[in-house]
Design a protein that fits this description.
- This protein has five helices and four strands; from the N terminus they run H-H-E-E-H-H-E-E-H.
- By secondary structure, it is α+β, with helices and mostly antiparallel strands.
- It has one domain: Haem-degrading domain (Beta-Lactamase).
- It has a four-stranded antiparallel sheet.
- A hairpin with a 4-residue loop joins strand 1 and strand 2.
- Helix 2 packs across helix 5.
Length: about 180
Amino acid sequence: MNDSSSLEKTSADLPEEALGIAEIANGIVQLGNGLASIELAERAVAAAQKKAVELNTQMCIAVVDSGSNLKAFARMDDAWVGSIDIAIKKAKTACFFGMPTGEIGKLSQPAAPLYGIEHSNDGLITFPGGLPIVDQDGVLIGGIGVSGSSVENDHLVALAGVQLIGVSDLPAHPWRT
């Protein structure tokens, strides 16, 4: 949904199964500055849960707003209790630095430029499963974090939540918040 023309369609232009996505995209356009709607955050969590079910795994899923404040959270049945904190920290980490947590992990290895960064900000998570949420104008509006399976599955589940909101990766730094 990176193409802004897709956001200009009305609900009359879309098939019935796409109406929920169009409503979310329209919500972002109207909100403009941050993941202000609990409905958007909850829909991102629901999309992530759906992907987790497809992957036959149980996850903890957290969505934060642009200030890294928890906006929505779900712990699927039988998801690890330890994954609660990890999911929230992945969402915050992705939002704090505007990049996927797996990318921060690459930069935080010994002898890398961000070595030791995971000890800042009351603890960061530097492995995959956290993604920034960016609107169609390139504005960071929040983050999503997922934990409970392999890091590959965590990333796929987080991506499903981001894609439902209809946002893209951050443009080249510097970005706007």
